[in-house]
Amino acid sequence: MKKSIILAVFIALGALLWVLSGVFGIGAQTPNDGAGVAQEAGLQSGALEQEETLIQVRVRDSVSENRDYDIQLTGRTQAARNVMLRGEIEGVVSEIVNQKGARVQQGDVIARLEVRDRTARLEEARERLTQREIEYNAARRLGEQGFNSKIRTAQSKADLEAARALLKLAEIDQSNLEIKAPYDGVIYDQMIEKGDLVRVGDALFALTDLNPIEIRAFASERQITHLYTGKTVRTRFLNNQEVEGTLTFLAPVANPDTRTFPVEISIPNPDYKILEGLTAQIFIPAEPEDVHRISPSILALDDDGVIGIKILDEDNRVIFNPVQIVADMPDYMLVGGLPETIKMITVGQDFVVPGQVVEPVASTGDGLL
Question: Is residue 352 part of a domain?
Fold first, then answer.
């Protein structure tokens, strides 16, 4: 009995010591845990401080200016008219009057075909017409006197009209023996030589009209609103030759692929010095407009592909502002669609997004950046 009591006492003391050892252990670890919490709080504070560090961007104040400018287009010269002269009757070439490269006037003979029996056919047609006229006049007089039927008179008139038609065809064949220039121009290609057999539809000569010379270009949707026919324009070629012309055509429909409008400029070219196929820079005066001068390098695109620049508001928050390119100069661009006064980001715009607050650094110097 005493042994069981002693064993129970020892078990109770052991349990008490075990509980007390846990309590003292926690107390010993408490200072270390406090240090850990403090360390974690310090890391979070550093992270917050790091997040509050603003990205620096270079900015430049810009004020719009109302200025004249030229709408600039690039085009290519083309002849006012090009035509391929083709054979209208069959025959052998008897003479080449004007060779390739010759300048001809309207109506000038370029080549001739052999006459053969066409002159005889023409004379026969003329004599046949004279005969039919006599027969018809006689039938008509007899009919008026009651000695001829209306049927005979009508038949005589039909024969007369048929004779006139045959004479007309013979005269056309005779005239087609000469290949003539339909307008003033230059023969720029020749497909036949003397002795060649020409058939109906064969290509004979290519004729081009270079006076006036035309320049075909394409204007954007914004540019087309400033243009009208009859406007005087200035053009410059690669050899620095400058001439004036007139805007003669504005397409009423845009090209569905490029969304640009074809335009044409007409330039006097009496000496044919301006050739077809030359590249030309076109300068069209536009009405004065409020624009900002920017460097092309600061242009950006939004998610929808709209072109614009990034500017800052009063709280240094980034704003994407769409722009319209008014003129593209060699060293700068003129753009519209912006407020009168702006603070535009010139360096670092690729690293910030709209709505982000940044730290602006004022740009120094006379450049655009």
Answer: yes
Whether omega for the bond prior to residue 252 falls within 30 degrees of 0, making it cis, is: no
Q: Are residues 165 and 272 in the same domain?
A: no
Instruction: Give me the CATH number covering residue 253.
Output: 2.40.30.170
Residue 369: inside a domain = no
Residue 258: CB atoms within 10 Å: 10
Place of tokens 């490269």: 101
Give CA–CA dist 348/141, Å, rounded: 104
* Buried/exposed code over 76-108 (b: 16+ C-beta within 10 A; e: otherwise): ebbbbeeeebebbeebebeebebeeebebeeeb
* Boundaries of domain holding 243: 72-77+210-288
Q: Are 334 and 292 in contact (CB under 8 A)?
A: yes
pTM: 0.58
In this prediction, residue 34 carries a pLDDT of 40
Backbone angles phi, psi at 187, to 5 degrees: -80, 110
Whether residue 18 lies inside any domain: the answer is no
Nearest of 167, 164, 170 to residue 119 by alpha carbon: 170
161 and 189 co-located in one domain: yes
- Please, which pLDDT band fits residue 6 given cuts at 50, 70 and 90? low
Do 99 and 117 form a contact (C-beta atoms < 8 A)?
Answer: no
> Based on the structure, what is the number of domains in the chain?
3
pLDDT in tens, 46-83: 444 445 688 999 999 999 988 888 888 999 999 999 99
Greatest distance between any 2 Cα atoms in the chain = 180
